[in-house]
Design a protein that fits this description.
By secondary structure, the chain is α+β, with helices and mostly antiparallel strands. About 20% of the residues lie in helices and about 40% in strands. Helix 1 crosses helix 2.
Length: about 250
């Protein structure tokens, strides 16, 4: 099982690791490590990109670009796109694992902003989430609204920015399944996406605003997010409305 550092320390940018396995695919080499700082993607948050740096003398400090990472059972594998067997690290090799920190931190800010949006919409309008996605600096969430207007969206934007400015701490906990599901409204999505067999649930709390099950990476305090702008809204069905936002200083 890969030691996935990102789930307990979102600010870890680098670590040393040992290559456990290498698999050749049409897209390149899949590298499995014993530990990693890469987030493998999920819940609408994209996977990290970055590099592996060879620490063994045989490779002479060679660096490989990691296009993305993903879950493979209990492991996380890293894609070295376009690399063929013999041109990449081999099992047993020691490497330094580095994520693209600027990209990751922007994703963390974006993810926390979306949770703040979710918290405001749930608290003040009682609307469940029906979908969401993000990229560095921008994202969207779909909610069960029958009607949406520019006036309402402007109101929501102002409320979200007010909550971010409060400088609320973000707390991450891993709870036994029964304890987690005893929390009212833990699942904010229309459909519960948590696998039925899991014994522990990871929760992310914006203290005083939002608490829900989540597996992604977040900043430690809402002041790191800064301000958001709602860049658009649209109807995706009779009771399904989409709100798009961006981090104000992302570009």
């Amino acid at each position: 099982m890969t030691d996935a550092i990102c789930y307990r320390d979102a600010y870890a940018r680098s670590c040393e690791a040992t290559v456990q396995a290498v698999e050749a695919t049409p897209d390149g080499l899949l590298i499995r490590l014993d530990r990693t700082v890469f987030y493998p993607g999920g819940g609408g948050q994209p996977a990290d990109s970055g590099t592996l740096l060879a620490l063994d003398q045989v490779w002479g400090g060679q660096r490989w670009q990691v296009a993305n990472a993903r879950k493979a059972g209990d492991d996380i594998v890293h894609l070295l796109a376009g690399i063929q067997p013999g041109d990449g690290p081999e099992p047993g090799a020691r490497v330094r694992v580095d994520i693209d920190w600027e990209r990751r931190h922007l994703l963390m800010r974006t993810h926390t902003a979306l949770h703040a949006l979710c918290g405001v919409v749930w608290r003040d309008y009682g609307a469940q989430v029906t979908g969401g996605n993000m990229e560095p600096g921008a994202g969207r969430m779909d909610f069960e609204f029958e009607r949406m207007s520019g006036e309402l969206v402007g109101e929501i934007e102002a409320k979200v920015n007010a909550e971010l400015a409060v400088a609320r701490d973000i707390r991450v906990r891993v709870l036994p399944r029964d304890e987690a599901f005893a929390i009212p409204d833990l699942i904010r999505t229309k459909i519960n996406l948590l696998p039925p067999g899991i014994t522990e649930v990871r929760t992310v709390e914006i203290v005083g605003l939002d608490l829900q099950a989540d597996g992604g990476t977040h900043v430690a305090n809402t002041r790191e997010v800064g301000r958001i702008r709602v860049t658009g809204y649209e109807s995706k069905g009779r009771i399904n409305k989409r709100i798009r936002l961006e981090i104000a200083d992302a570009g």
